[in-house]
Design goal:
The first copy, chain A, has twelve helices and twelve strands. The longest helix of chain A is centred in the C-terminal third of the chain and has 20 residues. Chain A binds a DNA duplex (16 and 16 nucleotides) through helix 2 and helix 4.
Chain lengths: 345, 345
DNA sequence: CTGTTAGCGCCTTCAT
DNA sequence: ATGAAGGCGCTAACAG
């Protein structure tokens, strides 16, 4: 009937023969408004099916009650787990989440960030694209006054807020496990060398080997750009060595999937000729006949929740417009331990 | 430095000693503004790093240039493919996409719809939660003047816009394939009986059997609520029959995943004791040693693109506020064929 | 071609 | 306890 004609406080004011300010205050439970007036206003609002026009409020308050979440991929199990927790947290604060997927493309990532900036999101949670090397957008967002919290893929910079995973603990557990099963030929398929996450993994790998008294063989560390071909090539590189390793840690479960195909293509058998452990728990394993030995869990849900919590602290601080916007609010990092999870024994 | 103080057209107007309307028009390439003025305005805007305050524009124009997309799950391959195409389409129109996942929970779904309504999205693309039986939200959105396009999981109603998949073509191909391989014991694991998608599949299943001269065995049609347990139980029901079927079509690839585990748990071998075909192509198959025989592709990307196209037509029509908002714009449906895709032979 | 004016819906001083 | 008035940033009649 009344097509699209949403009632406004003006309408309510007119009908009740009072002023719009009174209506506004009544609706917001302002203490200075009489109980009877407040009730009358609320009753009519209910009847008319009144709903405040948020766009007007956003405009007025310079806030959108919206946060942006930018991830390389929405479909990876790791990220969907993080998304769920972020959404839960945001919803509890009556915030809406805008999602964006960079597909690991820096250009796309920048475009998404600009869109979010234009839409005036109140804050951003960001897992950077794997291929991003330039982080000008940090400056852009800082200028726009939009707080950012990184997680998972975090640029190697000091002045940023982030939830970071301690990749070393998990790696140590993985190598210890392999060693205690008698493996001596332990190899590592690492990700792109420029990633902080790769550097940290590699350090941990070497440390753990030393710790177990296993000499480091440089040929046992190979790299992939995380593409299917890269993963396959890296695996074949290991398989084709004269002294083929019997155990392999890889950058993540997706690398392992391709590695398993490569292993099979060479007539070898997983969990017999070669044992595998990788980062990030990928639930599809339970449907595989011959899954990897274990995964190193990185608690994406927890990381997401922590990132959201940190972001809202920053947003709240901004809102309270504390005069001291000096350096205090920059550069906090929370570290989470990674942990080995058995899949198969 | 100038922390947060975004320049406005007012600022530009003042500096250039012209009126704000001129600035506004110049910025929007209004033809009636002199070339020189336009240039001067644009130059200064550039220098000041001016960016229009969208929240003000949204407010003024009663539009948010935002569409909502609500799906049961963001991580299912089917939906992520659809999302990508929807995003592409929306971006080309300078629209932002707000994603929401219902997790097949009607309550969550309703909440998301309300959030989107409050945020005044200009339109919604919706794949309904599997468990939703009440569609009051259609009325709510209609009253709010927000156009909706359904796809994938479409309520069985006349007055809605939707992209629907013709599930029959794929089913026919699947049964034909089984039959031509000599299978006579062909069973079907269907989804919840209340879903239109289940009814259509079942009809097609029966038709296709008849067509191949295979008598229908009622025991060969079982149902699952799509939970892991439901899928497993349904599969075991078939396996435990005195005359175990040799071929099974199932509701979708996720059902098949659980079915495969059930098959193995009984000591049977996929692609030997039992052959499988299911709806929706799930890319992880390529990592399985023993994937199902085939999948029935439903072209999620194409469905998404078509849904977006249809939605924008509705949005544009609303904007042009054609007086004849009679029934014309209600109830259009576009049908897409489903198609068998060989996985393994 | 350009300026003036008004207003979108809401909130918020400042009066009363 | 309530009203009147002004303004957020931008657009769009309506004048010149």
């Amino acid at each position: 009937m009344n097509k699209g004609k949403q009632p406004t406080i003006k309408e309510i004011a007119k009908r009740l023969k009072i002023s719009t300010s009174t209506v506004s205050r009544a609706l917001n439970d302002h203490p200075s408004i009489g109980l009877i007036t407040t009730m009358r206003v609320k009753k009519l609002a209910e009847e008319l099916n009144y709903e405040p026009n948020r766009t007007a409020i956003f405009f007025k308050q310079r806030k959108t009650f919206t946060i942006g979440v930018i991830l390389p991929s929405l479909s990876e199990a790791f990220f969907s787990a993080a998304i769920s927790e972020i959404e839960n947290f945001a919803n509890s604060r009556n915030y809406t989440v805008i999602l964006g997927q960079s597909l690991d493309d820096p250009e796309r990532e920048l475009k998404i960030i600009n869109t979010m900036k234009v839409h005036r999101v109140d804050g951003i949670i960001l897992s950077s694209a794997k291929n991003t090397r330039e982080f000008e957008y940090i400056e852009i967002l800082r200028n726009a006054g939009i707080p950012v919290v990184f997680f998972d893929c975090v640029p190697d910079l000091v002045q940023i807020n982030a939830i970071v995973s301690n990749l070393k603990t998990g790696m140590k557990e993985a190598i210890d496990t392999f060693a205690s099963c008698g493996h001596r030929g332990i190899a590592f398929i690492n990700g792109p060398a420029h990633l902080p996450a790769s550097k940290e993994r590699e350090e941990a790998f070497i440390d753990a080997l030393v710790n177990n008294g296993i000499p480091l063989n440089r040929d046992y560390i190979v790299y992939t750009d995380l593409s299917e071909k890269g993963n396959t090539d890296a695996t074949l590189q290991l398989i084709n060595l004269s002294e083929r390793p019997s155990a392999v840690v890889s950058f993540n479960d997706y690398v392992t999937l391709d590695a398993m195909n490569a292993v099979r293509s060479k007539g070898l058998t997983v969990n017999q000729d070669i044992f595998l452990i990788s980062y990030a728990n990928y639930p599809i394993w339970k449907y595989m006949e011959n899954p990897p030995m274990a995964s190193i869990e990185q608690l994406p849900g927890k990381q997401g929740a922590l990132a959201a919590e940190m972001l809202f602290e920053l947003i709240d601080r901004d809102t309270e417009e504390n005069a001291d916007d000096s350096g205090i609010k920059q550069g906090r990092k929370i570290v989470l331990e990674s942990k080995l999870v058995n899949q198969h024994v």
